[in-house]
Amino acid sequence: MSMRSVIAAAALASLADMAAAGGPGLGVPLAADESPFYAIYAMPDGRGLPPGSGTAADGAEIYAAKCAQCHGETGIEGPIMPPVGPNDVWEKPAGKYWPYATTIFAYIRRAMPLDAPKSLSNNEAYALTAFILSRNGVIAEGDTITAETLPDVAMPNRDNFTDVWATQGAKPW
Amino acid sequence: MMADPSVSAPKLEFAAGGGLLSRRMLLRGAAAGSGAALAALAMPRPAQAEPALPEWVTVAGERARGYGMPAEQEADVQRAIIEPFGDLARAFSLSGTPHHKLRGTITPNGLHFEVHHGGRPNLDPDGHRLMIHGMVERPIKFDLNALERYPMVTATHFLECSGNSFFNAVMPEPMQSGCDMLHGLLSNSEWTGVPVRVLLEEAGVRPEGRWVLAVGNDAPSLARSIPVEKLMDDAFVALYQNGERIRPEQGYPMRLLLPGFEGNMNVKWLTSLWVTDAPAYTKHESGEYTEILANGSSVKFTFAMGVKSVITHPSATMTMSGPGFYEISGIAWSGAGSVRKVEISADGGESWAEAALQEPVLPRALTRFRLPWRWEGAPTLLMSRAEDATGAVQPTRSSWKARYDPSNFLHYNAIQPWQITPEGSVQNVYA
Known about the structure:
The complex is a heterodimer of chains A (173) and B (431). Chain A is mostly helical and 173 residues long. Chain A has helices spanning 3-21, 56-66, 68-71, 94-97, 102-111, 122-135, 164-168, and strands at 28-29, 53-55, 144-146, 161-163.
């Protein structure tokens, strides 16, 4: 085979690879320690929850210092989407309406407080989760929330949803 | 346009009550002809003396500039910004496209609507990566330069916030504002980018991988769970909007584009696709973007936007410039496919006439519709009603309201009536 036909054959082979993958295959391997914690989400069954724990009492202090100005002194006043319900501001208070308690932890840890997201430690986020759940009467005041106990919290509204994607796919509701 | 006034105006062909004319007149250009005839009658007679020359024809024009801007006189064509919590939470805001000041189907990039849950990040594109990981054979990452080398697709699609038109959904009395406030959380662009399927296939989704968590590289790390089926179908990682790199407001340097799905899922500043076996129940899909129904239960994972239309010309806050010929013009769209038909009523729904649809009518994209009309100066209730390729038709406001809890303001797609008073003022009504 001439040099030229070797090159041509190689080019054809890589074009064939490309066609198989549908692209040039330029993705670089991603090491496990390269992705930040917020690239995933705690799942309802607890997968993805980091180790840590907190109580409502710890949470109450952090809440008063870092959350109350936007969400209300006791969690029902707002003005912004109060997490405790029922309240007069928001029909979907996180601690009553959301189907899984894991979401409360994961969301606070990545997104709150609004002006300093990701500034809380895992323990602080667990404590705030415990505070919100206990204020909603979903857990007892003295309960400790950990990566192990959080997935077991039975949220009161969980079975009150129809899954539209599962029942009718992309057809608009 | 000049017309010979000696040519008699063509006979008007009425299509429905309230002065609606046949769309066939538009197709023939007859309505335009009759408009021109009317205009010609109003033309001033040639003046005797030489008219004064405007200054700009007597001096050299401005130098070229690298990036063009709208005319200074158009400076009031802006997005309507709503900061619901004011200074307390400035990072949470909505900006609506001023559809009543636009006439085509493509939204200019600087006027594309925005909904910010944590503000617009000052993102360094050199430090930005798109990661694909989780239930895949090969966890991989891409920088912008790598994605630039992939085969791309170009497609025109609307994006609509599921909260679009929320004032009409929940305000007890109709709010008197323009289409920017009332229906502005909707825009339409030509997007260009890399099909997600190609990237997922490169990573090799494992059989148990059924959902993908898409995460943004912004302050709240906004996240939504998306079914693999959608990503393998028509989703793409958009790098360009109307030919230029995506604007910071729209997710620079890359965003997810899920044609027809509610805006919030089209994650901006896309940095991670994490393949899982189930939805993660992120904040947005747990509460804010679910809908409470009339019976107190809720619906979740309501992804596609329903069929909808709005007359933009005339529309609320406008004033008619006297009785006579007008072109009714508006936009229609559906997250389920193409718009099949738009009907217009100028007598409060007694009679309807079919509007002309501007070609090409593209699936999951804004379609411009038009109908010639002679307004007699009487009180008029104007409405448009769209039907999509699946046969779905826009509901009335009262039938939409009957399905939901009174607090629900999401996925509102009811018919928009505009009331025109004898004085020519155009008002938002619920009728």
